[in-house]
Amino acid sequence: MANAAPNTPTPVKPPKPHARLEKWIWILIYAGLFLVILGIATGRTDATLGWSLAVPGGVVALVGVVLIYVRSRLDGK
Q1: How many CB atoms lie within 10 A of CB 25?
Q2: pLDDT tens sequence across 46-60
Q3: Burial readout 29-68 (b: 16 or more C-beta within 10 A, e: otherwise)
Q4: Residue 4 burial (CB count, 10 A)
């Protein structure tokens, strides 16, 4: 045990100030794009249902993209 390292604490990383926002950005983008694709695939058999899935999906994805812009304007410190 002569080579054992002393008991030094590991440094703690400070939390990212906007981690929750970044998580929601990508959730909204991917969920929105999934709904758009699902709407396109469903629209081949039922046009009304396809549009009712694709349009809200596009809006949700657009909200995610707008949040990327909002995140770029927030102070990161």
Answers
A1: 19
A2: 999 999 999 999 999
A3: beebeebbeebeebbeeeeeebeebbeebeebbeebeebe
A4: 6
**Residue carrying the six token digits 């396809």:** 50
What element of type H or E holds 14?
none
Q: Is the pTM of this model over 0.85?
A: no
Q: Which two tokens stand for residue 71?
A: 């995140």
**6 with 64: CB under 8 angstroms?**
no
Distance CA 61, CA 30 (A): 7
